[in-house]
Write a structure and sequence with these properties.
Blueprint: H1 16-38, H2 44-51, H3 55-61, H4 65-85, H5 91-104, H6 106-121, H7 128-142, H8 156-167, H9 173-186
C-alpha cells in the first residue's frame, strides 16, 4: 500500500509563466536601479540579487549584458509611449515620465545622445536599434505636442531632450531630478510631475 505524502513533503506547484513574467519584470526593475547607481558596467550578479533571483534565472531571460540593457531601454520607451497614449494625457505629463526615466537611467540618456550624434554626423553606421527607440520616443511626445509649442519645430523636440539629458547629473535621484527640472525651466518648457508612468 502506497503511503500518500505528508503535506510538508508535497512539491509546490510549478508557478509557470506567471512566475517567469514576474521574474522578468523584477529583473528589469532591478537593472534600472543598479544601472542608475553603478552605471552600465555593474555586474549582472548585482542585478539578480536585487531582483531576488538566482543568476540562472537572469540568464534564462537575458543571455548577456546587452540583452539586459536592451530590455531596460525597451521598457523605458514603452512607459513613455503609454504615458503619452493615456486618456487625457498632456505633453507635459508625457515629458514628466520621460524626465523621470532620464533621472533613473544613464543607458536611456546614452540611447538618446547616440541617435542624435549619428544623425548629425550622417554616418552610415547608425545604430538602427537606438534610432528606432529614439524615434518611438519622439513620436509619442509629438502626439501630445500642441501646434505652435516652442518645441514643435522639426529638430526642436529631440534636441531639447538631448540638451536636458546632458544636464542630468548628480549622485542622488533627488539631485538629478532638481537638475532635470532646472534644465526644462531654462528652456522655458513646462514639465509635469517627474515620476514613473502609473498604469
Amino acid at each position: 500500500m502506497t503511503q500518500s505524502p505528508r503535506p510538508d513533503e508535497r512539491r509546490s506547484p510549478n508557478p509557470g509563466p506567471k512566475a517567469a513574467a514576474r521574474n522578468r519584470a523584477a529583473l528589469i526593475a532591478a537593472a534600472r536601479e543598479i544601472y542608475a547607481e553603478h552605471g552600465l558596467g555593474a555586474p549582472l550578479s548585482a542585478i539578480a540579487r536585487r531582483a531576488g533571483v538566482g543568476q540562472g534565472v537572469l540568464y534564462r531571460h537575458f543571455p548577456d549584458r546587452a540583452a539586459v540593457a536592451a530590455a531596460v531601454l525597451e521598457e523605458n520607451v514603452r512607459e513613455v509611449e503609454q504615458a503619452a497614449a493615456a486618456e487625457g494625457a498632456t505633453f507635459e505629463d508625457a515629458l514628466g515620465v520621460l524626465s523621470w526615466h532620464l533621472t533613473e537611467s544613464s543607458a536611456f540618456i546614452s540611447l538618446l545622445h547616440a541617435d542624435e550624434a549619428h544623425r548629425r554626423a550622417g554616418t552610415s553606421g547608425t545604430h538602427e536599434y537606438a534610432r528606432a527607440l529614439s524615434g518611438r520616443v519622439e513620436r509619442a511626445l509629438r502626439g501630445r505636442l500642441r501646434p505652435g509649442h516652442r518645441l514643435a519645430a522639426a529638430d526642436g523636440l529631440m534636441l531639447a531632450v538631448a540638451m536636458v539629458s546632458g544636464a542630468v547629473t548628480g549622485p542622488t535621484r533627488e539631485e538629478r531630478e532638481d537638475r532635470v527640472r532646472a534644465a526644462w525651466r531654462l528652456l522655458a518648457v513646462e514639465v509635469g510631475p517627474v515620476r514613473p508612468f502609473a498604469r
